[in-house]
Specification:
GO terms for molecular function: gibberellin 2-beta-dioxygenase activity; metal ion binding. The chain is α+β, with helices and mostly antiparallel strands. Helices cover about 25% and strands about 30% of the residues. Strand 1 and strand 2 (about 15-20) form a beta hairpin.
Length: about 375
């Protein structure tokens, strides 16, 4: 075994970290055999090693790049049709000409970088992330999932961080995030309205109203994936955020330009492709709830984040969710003659409660399928 120890708030503290994987190498690729066969191994971080077990993934190669990412220009008339096509094929697309000022994005990113550069005890005082929101490190959710990241998880009320959420306490950071959240929420509304138009649903706000009405359950996440230089040249990378689908209607993501996001082009997760970074664009994921509303016509995309060995990745994700009492069932106007619903009807609150009891990689919709 190689011994290497890391603290998450810095790049490399010492050469005492523990990489737990079989030292049985494939002579052709110089990747641990266990990593090549199962696509995962384990990295164990200090404090305490019994808990912090993070999977390793085969490092993406040049042929793993998803060059055919659908690009939707929100400024042109054909955007609605392009969105529907992308949602049916991949459940994922990139948005350009979205109207969000570059300064708004840069200010939020700059403030986030400053926050995560603080000493660990200072950041820890902004936690825990669960159940009410705040700072988290390595632990994702409440059911044992781990990742090489630290993050802020924030509740959103209307178009800003909820008053009940005391984090972040820094006024400049909070103002920058609120400016960003208000802007990206408008993008989400435009996308949802374009979806309704493309699907032929009336009124145009049939989907977006679920996000804009009082009591909508919106969440905002800021993720920081520190570099992991100890893995450079080993053919494997630490898992930043494990494979999962998003439970909400849609999620809107923007990163600082460091690569790492991957999507599964096959439902069984056997073909993972890296998404080229673009710090000036937004990436939209279809969530589980939208898959149900369209009776499976739109696909909730499975995705994950692989860490970069030398560069930090900072990402912002806005999750557009409906009110807890919102009924989730296939929209009648989308059901063709004789077509039956594939899902049992549920409320967003019921689904959210069930989702919190699962692991990241679980198929949350399975228990609601007919």
């Amino acid at each position: 075994m190689h011994l290497l120890h890391y603290h998450l708030d810095s790049t490399l503290i010492s050469q005492r970290c523990l990489l737990c994987f079989d030292l049985c190498f494939d002579s052709h690729a110089h990747v641990p055999l266990k990593t090549r066969q199962a696509d995962t191994a384990m990295v164990v971080l200090a404090n305490p090693p019994a808990v912090d077990q993070i999977p390793l993934l085969r490092s993406p190669g040049p042929t793993d790049t998803f060059a055919a990412v659908p690009v939707v220009d929100l400024s042109i008339p054909g955007a609605a049709r392009a969105i529907v096509d992308a949602c049916e094929r991949f459940g994922f697309f990139k948005v350009v000409n979205h109207g969000v000022d570059t300064g708004t994005m840069d200010r939020a990113e700059s403030e986030a970088v400053e926050f995560f550069a603080q000493a660990q005890p200072v950041k820890d005082r902004a936690g825990p992330a669960y159940p009410s929101g705040g700072y988290g490190s390595k632990r994702i959710g409440l059911n044992g999932d781990m990742g090489w990241l630290e993050y802020l998880l924030l509740a959103v009320h209307n178009a800003s961080i909820s008053d009940s959420c005391a984090v972040p306490s820094n006024a400049a950071f909070r103002a920058a995030l609120n400016e960003y959240i208000a802007a990206v929420r408008k993008v989400a509304v435009r996308v949802l309205e374009a979806m309704a138009e493309g699907l032929g649903i009336a009124p145009v706000d049939a989907l977006s109203a679920m996000v804009t009405e009082q009591g909508s359950d919106q969440v905002f996440r800021v993720n920081h994936y520190p570099p992991c230089p100890a893995l450079q040249g080993l053919g494997c990378s630490a898992t930043g955020f494990g494979e999962h689908t998003d439970p909400q209607l849609i999620s809107v993501l923007r990163s600082n330009g460091t690569s790492g996001l991957q999507i599964a082009l096959r439902d069984d997760g056997a073909q993972w492709m890296s998404v080229p970074s673009d710090r000036n664009a937004f990436f939209v994921n279809v969530g589980d709830s939208l898959q149900v509303l369209t009776n499976g016509r739109f696909k909730s995309v499975k995705h994950r984040v692989v860490t970069n060995s030398l560069k930090s990745r900072v990402s912002f994700i806005y999750f557009a969710g409906p009110p807890l009492a919102q009924r989730i069932a296939p929209l009648p106007e989308l059901l063709r003659e004789g077509e039956e619903s594939l899902y049992k009807e549920f409320t967003w609150g019921e689904y959210k409660k069930a989702a919190y009891k699962t692991r990241l990689g679980d198929n949350r919709l399975a228990q609601f399928e007919k």
